Amino acid sequence: MNFHVTRQAAVSSLALAMAVPCAFADSNPVDTVVVTATRSPQRAPDVIAQTVVVDAREIARSGAGSVADVLQRQPGIEIARNGGAGASTSVFLRGANSNQVVVLLDGVRIGSSTSGVASWNAVPLEAVDRIEIVYGPLSTLYGADAIGGVIQIFTRKGEGTATAGASLGAGSDAARQASAHVAGTAGTVRYAFGAGHEQSDSFSATKPGAFGFNPDDDGYRRSSTHGRLALALAPGHEIGAQVLHSRLRAQYDSGAGSFDSRNRQDLNTAAVFMTNRFLPNWHSTVQLARSEDKSGSFANASASGASQIDTRQDDLSWQNTVTLGADTLQLLYGHRKEAVESSSSAALGRERITNAYAAAYALRRGAHLLDLSARQDRSSYGDKNTGATGYGYDFGGGVRASASLGTSFRAPTFNELYFPGYGVPTNRPERGRNAELGLRYDGARTQLGAVWFRNRLTDMIVSATPCPDSSSGRTGSCAYNVASATLEGVTLSGATRLGALRLRGSADWQDPHDNGSGKRLARRAREHASVGADYRAGRLDTGAELQVSGARFDDAANLRRLGGYALLNLYATWQLNADLSLLARVNNAADKEYELARNYGTGGRSWFAGLRYGIR
């Protein structure tokens, strides 16, 4: 498809078609509160950035098997996975690399400092209460790596009367799942606790022709616990703590033989926080958090086949929000310390400290909305200044137009700086400059809209051969700032309810390409879409969704082609009584053969059935 022709047609349709989060179709958008877009609660109609909110009901209705599966059906998102649900997973947002997206779990940043990527396969879906996706550069609010956007995952908080929930299910490939949770308020204490376990024999991670191919099944086991406790000291003053632990054990292929090659992944987060309303218009939040990403690999029985890489991130943030009439002023200080330990390379065993100072101002004057923000990050890679501005105009009747400009950056990973023979300590951060236009309609039953964006990236770090840094006698490849790229595209999406029928859909046309070679960025399609329909008849909810992707390339040279695909998923929920429901789901109902990564396996037709007590 010729992107330029498509883009012109799509941009010209801005006056006719308008995009908005498909997840808002279940409730009135006026009642939806978004946190991630501005780091503080805000009504959805007042959010200028393109934002999608996926709530617990939406997750439960979909019957998705992982967080990545939930994300894949949202606008602007593609995924790549090296095998089944327990395998390494990448999430591309608006064509940006997986390491150009910030991932937060209850406000705590997660991910590896060596690869720069979050461990999506270790995030337990059963703990998730809500997901917010904010598109576009957010470095002024979240610092390094927020080039494509920010994805924040929320667990349960505990509000109102005590509630409890549990689920039990089984499916294809000996899949088994069980979880339970309790949440609520007791006097001045808010609490939420939960635990879950899932496992599957899955399928072979690789296909014939792949390096290390072994035709055995490569299953996984994941167990998790999470909790949150908050105490109200006085009206407007609260202290609390939250924790999450997830342990993943997944098999993979590293060659034929009897040895069980496997990965060990532990994801841990912990935080203590204090919120204070010192004045009626002054709200302060202090949080001290730690996240750990522990990754171990056992390729064979020898000592050389084992490796362990652990990342620890400590964050201190102090945010002050001051309400000035209809306007809001935010002042933020952040301190972040990254530390890596590696059994395979002592050179990676380093620390990095970043201090950040940011300010944001949200102005509201009648139909006009204006957001301004600026930030400075001071770290070993130098000082980075970023800024952003967004403007929205409300025409009335639920119609609003918006425009924004913003800069962002990605910090070099520890691998790109220090890995022996590959890293270059003088590598600079990648830089992004984004512009976008949007138009949307928020109605009681229907939401529509469109967004056009163009994000130009410079100083991109890629594997350069031969290495431009010849100071140490290098002759092979290395990580180096030698590339630039442009991420450009249009997203159309919408949702509506017609009586008992709920329809939703989104379509993306994009051109993420390397400016030097003109080649498309690896594993990203020019077009992809998701369409779904749900129908309620008494106690029965039935639904179908179609996920479509165009062809992609598995390499930067665009020589290894991955064909396009269309996947049909079917699901139904029978409400047995007010609290108990039965869920059934069929994934890839047409048994389509496809690839998300070259020579890595994907699931054929599969089924899952489960019993749920409570909403989630």
Query: What structural category arises from helix and sheet content?
Result: mainly beta
Envelope shape: globular
Count the beta strands: 34
The assigned CATH architecture is Beta Barrel
Helix content: under 10%
Describe the fold and architecture:
Strand 17 (306-324) and strand 18 form a beta hairpin. The chain has helices at residues 3-12, 56-62, 67-72, 139-142, 414-418, and strands spanning 33-34, 42-43, 51-55, 77-81, 89-93, 101-105, 108-109, 128-135, 149-155, 163-171, 175-186, 189-203, 218-234, 237-251, 262-279, 282-298, 306-324, 327-342, 351-365, 368-379, 382-396, 399-410, 430-442, 446-464, 478-498, 501-510, 513-514, 527-537, 540-549, 552-553, 561-562, 565-575, 580-587, 606-613. It has a single domain, classed as TonB-dependent receptor, beta-barrel domain (Maltoporin, Chain A), CATH 2.40.170. The strands form 5 sheets. The protein has a 22-stranded antiparallel beta barrel. It is built from 5 helices and 34 strands. It is mostly beta strands.
What's this, in brief?
The protein is built from five helices and 34 strands. With 616 residues, it is mostly beta strands.
